[in-house]
Design a protein that fits this description.
Number of strands: 16
Helix content: 25-40%
Largest sheet: 6 strands, mixed
Radius of gyration: 33 Å
Number of domains: 3
CATH architecture of the largest domain: 3-Layer(aba) Sandwich
Strand order of the largest sheet: 2-1-3-6-4-5
């Protein structure tokens, strides 16, 4: 089953999310016991994690004042003064710097970016709560999640960090393509509402994040209303109830961006209401307003594709990379080889890669109904693992290759090959052209240097060279190549029909797709 999480109480004075998760726990348990088919299916097919209080120290401070005497700052931070939501590693800067240098995905991956060493050092300003959350994220292969906050009524989706955009003049496009682009923009406005691109920090899964955000706001009873949807006179969500985090409130090191770049989980923030600390009398109404939206958002974890990646013996392959064509963000398989990838409806070209196996590609379709499409993969082993073992054994030295099935080279054949090698080297040295020296002053002359340099070949030897004249004293004749991790094939060219030769061990090198 896919892993889903709801978290609340990142800020101790935003208590509505905490109370809603406690009510959601009671509702799910009661309805499951009563046989509600929707809840039964949700519980059996999903691993649901609910954490109502991520900042208990801040909540204790805020609860002492209560809803009447509390304010917007009291209990917002941890006891040590950290804002947990913005206390995560800044991986956006790492990724964007690598993209500018064209290092992604060859040198720097587009997913599961490692945490910088400076963040994990003893002198780093990291809250204990943040470290515990990161360890929890890395332990469980979450697919979808949301953190419940307060003070506004909307859904905010990544990226939360603003990205500097280089101003470049777009290339001139043909007139028919310009008209086509205008028609597509009009269709997009009619389907999902207009979005002002100014200030928006788009992620590779921008369209998927908008779909997920709308799934909550549209099921919420008041979030999508133009009259009561916003907490301010200026409704910057344009009646949709969703907004890009960087456009609304640019922040770095947020929980949403870190979850997206370090794990498989798509995370967003749900702001439940204008009042951070509502009165107890209002909880029943707030539950009815948010109940359907909370359940509908959990069900979105079953949208897209899912499957298992195994080898030909049926053994699961962990940490295999799942790539979607046209989406520059990959995910990895879990320890038992299964994976989930949330996608919008459509057809996708899915490619799976794993170290030591040849890659595999399929076309997978995603429908509009809830229920992920099964897309399993079976990978064949390649000999790249053996090649890497040889490289590790040889170090930086050359690796000897010989034709498969060859036999040991005889002494006379070895001498003939050495002789041919020496003749080729001599011919190459004699063909080197020496240019006349240049002078500082020009002197006219009617005599021109010859256009070609005469070539003198050494006399052909009829008798074989003596053992003292040989170039190598090895038992076998070898060709050397330096093997690097590139997707190519190494071919060995033998210029004469001499007898095949071999070394002590013969390797057939076939670089498959890896």
């Amino acid at each position: 089953e896919p892993e889903f999480r709801y978290t609340a109480g990142l800020h101790g004075n935003e208590v509505l999310g905490r109370e809603l998760l406690l009510l959601l726990m009671q509702f799910i348990c009661k309805e499951f016991r009563d046989g509600n088919p929707r809840i039964t299916s949700l519980v059996r097919d999903t691993r649901i994690h609910l954490v109502p209080s991520m900042n208990p120290d801040g909540y204790e401070i805020a609860s002492q004042m209560g809803s009447e005497l509390g304010n917007w700052a009291l209990g917002h931070w941890t006891e040590e003064g950290y804002d947990i939501f913005t206390n995560f590693p800044d991986l956006n800067t790492v990724l964007w710097a690598a993209e500018e240098r064209k290092w992604v995905p060859h040198r720097v991956p587009n997913h599961h970016l490692p945490i910088p060493d400076s963040y994990m050092s003893e002198d780093a300003t990291v809250a204990m709560e943040t470290k515990a959350i990161i360890a929890w994220m890395e332990k469980n292969p979450f697919v979808l999640g949301a953190n419940l906050q307060g003070g506004e009524k909307l859904v905010s989706y990544p990226y939360d960090m603003a990205r500097a955009v280089k101003e470049e003049s777009p290339p001139e496009r043909p007139r028919y393509q310009q008209h086509q682009d205008e028609e597509e923009e009009e269709e997009e406005v009619l389907e999902v509402g207009a979005e002002d691109e100014e200030g928006v920090s788009r992620s590779p899964d921008h369209g998927i994040f908008r779909w997920l955000a709308i799934s909550y706001s549209s099921a919420h009873l008041t979030m999508g209303e133009t009259t009561r949807g916003s907490c301010h006179a200026d409704d910057f969500t344009k009646g949709m109830g969703i907004v890009n985090g960087a456009k609304w409130r640019p922040q770095s090191g947020t929980m949403n961006d870190f979850s997206y770049l370090h794990t498989n989980c798509l995370e967003m923030s749900i702001y439940l209401g204008c009042d951070k600390y509502p009165h107890e009398n209002e909880l029943a109404e707030e539950w009815e307003i948010n109940k359907e939206a909370l359940l509908s958002f959990i069900e979105q974890v079953h949208r897209g594709i899912k499957g298992i990646v195994t080898d030909r013996e049926g053994e699961p392959i962990a940490n295999a990379t799942i790539s979607i064509s046209e989406i520059n963000h990959d995910v990895k398989t879990a320890s038992n080889g299964d994976y989930w990838r949330i996608l919008n409806p459509g057809e996708y070209r899915v490619t799976v890669r794993a170290e030591g196996y040849t890659q595999s590609t399929k076309i997978c379709s995603v429908g509009y109904d809830i229920g992920a499409t099964h897309c399993n993969f079976v990978l064949a082993r390649s000999n790249w693992r053996r090649i890497k073992e040889i490289i590790a054994m040889k170090g930086n030295g050359p690796i000897r290759f010989a034709p498969a099935g060859g036999r040991r080279l005889s002494p006379s054949a070895r001498q003939r090959m050495q002789q041919r090698r020496q003749m080729w080297l001599n011919r190459r040295a004699n063909l080197t052209t020496t240019l006349p020296p240049t002078t500082s002053s020009f002197v006219p002359s009617t005599t021109f240097p010859p256009t070609e340099t005469p070539t003198t070949l050494p006399p052909r030897r009829l008798e074989p060279p003596t053992p003292s004249e040989t170039l190598w004293d090895t038992e076998t004749e070898t060709y050397t190549e330096i093997v690097t991790e590139v997707e190519t094939e190494i071919w060995e060219e033998v210029s004469t029909p001499a007898a095949p030769f071999t070394t002590g061990e013969t390797y057939t090198v076939n670089f498959g797709d890896f």
